[in-house]
Amino acid sequence: MEKYDVLIVGGGHGGAQTAIALRKQGFSGSIGLLDRSRALPYEKPPLSKDYLSGAKAFERILIRPEKFWQDRDIDLLGGANVESLDPLTKVISCSGGKEYGYGHLVWSAGGDARRLTCDGSDLCGVHTLRCKEDVDALKASLKSGAARCTIIGGGYIGLEAAAVFRKLGHDVVVIEALDRVLSRVTGPEISRFVESEHTNKGAELRLGSAVNYIAGDGGNVTGVALETGEVIPTDLVLVGIGINPCIDVLAKAGAQTDNGVMVNEFCQTTLTDIYAIGDCAAHISPFAGGQRIRLESVQNANDMANVAASAICGDFSSYHATPWFWSDQYDLKIQTVGLSIGYDHAVTRGDTATRSFSVIYLKDGHVIAIDCVNAMKDYVQGKKLVEAQLVAAPADLADTSRQLKELL
Question: Which of 265, 360, 355, 280 has the alpha carbon at shortest distance from 318?
Fold first, then answer.
């Protein structure tokens, strides 16, 4: 059985950054980076954008080339799926009977794409989008003649894919169960603007629509049946309805869970010498009013990785990173800083007709978040307002003759 001083489970942004940060901080012990995929660690955001569209080859979305890991004596342990963990003996067991021992374990396993549970959800032509293999399967379906694409879920993944499909010339229908797209992450003004952008580009949106079942013929998908009885003919279905955090192994080993693996300010779980970071880690966030939340973002994964690596090296610095996110759809760059959870007032800065504007969210008069559409300057300066939880008058925030930094 191989043993590592630090064993990292999950080769995405968080896992890769943990290994990188450990070496940068002078950690000289052995490091193993274990992932179910045999591919080199790669960036996830381009999967639904440049990699899906073909604008970037896989080699261009690698986090680092192979030689980087070799030069830093970081072992890439690909093709292994963790099945169980014994926190007392500090041993994990993988599929195929392989076992690894560890001194410290960093759990960065992320999440699996949530799947439909209705009839027909397992038909050929029904896809999710979470990893390289998912996108490769999608590309193969498109190349085989799937002209009509139906996307279930109006979140960022679904809308980014919709933009790519339209650019490639495919017919697109987006089905969203709620009454607007992006309803879980932004306010109505951004939602309505994004909806109009997609319809103007030829996509069809079905809001407030629930899926009843997936229709098929000969094992292949042929349509999506709504609860209204309507069947939307389709050649391909992409399901983008969120993720289920990969926490079962830790939960069975005794870790406390609450919509993710519960961690403290140093990303430590309730199990000795086991850390959790990224999409699967539930942490208390001052940007969410002290609630315990999970954040599914590259920023969160990278910053948590740095905190965990520092703690392993003996420097216990609390996680207090400002949340930020982005999405590329058509020629739109949508950037968000902060969390708009519980906002009570929204201020529009700029004119939506120009396709360059921002929406600033306030709670009890404090700036808590900002959404920026093709407005990089607002995004950069707005970050400082969010971090300061600035108290500002709505009229001042809306005044485009003044830069946001002037309000600090």
Answer: 265
Give me the residue label for tokens 């495919």.
Answer: 170
* 331-407: CATH number: 3.30.390.30
Return the residue matching tokens 């970081």.
74
Q: Specify the length of the chain in residues.
A: 408
Please state, in angstroms and rounded to a whole number, the distance separating the CA atoms of residues 363 and 389: 9
pLDDT, one tens digit per residue, over 293-327 is 999 999 999 999 999 999 999 999 999 999 999 99
Mean pLDDT of 161-175: 97
CATH 3.90.230.10 is right for the domain spanning 2-112+243-312:
no
Q: Which amino acid is at 135?
A: V
| CATH 3.30.470.10 fits domain 115-239 | no
* Cα 82 off chain centre by: 21
pLDDT tens-place string over residues 268-281: 999 999 999 999 99
Q: How far apart are CA 202 and CA 234, in angstroms?
A: 16
pLDDT, tens digit (0-9, with 9 covering 90-100), for 190-224: 999 999 999 999 999 999 999 999 999 999 999 99
Q: Where are the alpha helices (DSSP H) in 219-291?
A: 248-252
What are the C-alpha distances in Å from 227 to residues 73, 237, 384? Answer: 55, 17, 46
pTM, two decimals, is 0.95
pLDDT of res. 96 = 87
Q: Any idea where the domains of the chain sit in the sequence? A: 2-112+243-312, 115-239, 331-407
C-alpha–C-alpha distance, residues 389 and 377, integer Å:
18
Q: Which residues of 330-341 are buried (b: 16+ CB within 10 A; e: fewer)?
A: bebbbbbbbbbb
Q: Do domains 2-112+243-312 and 115-239 have the same CATH topology?
A: yes
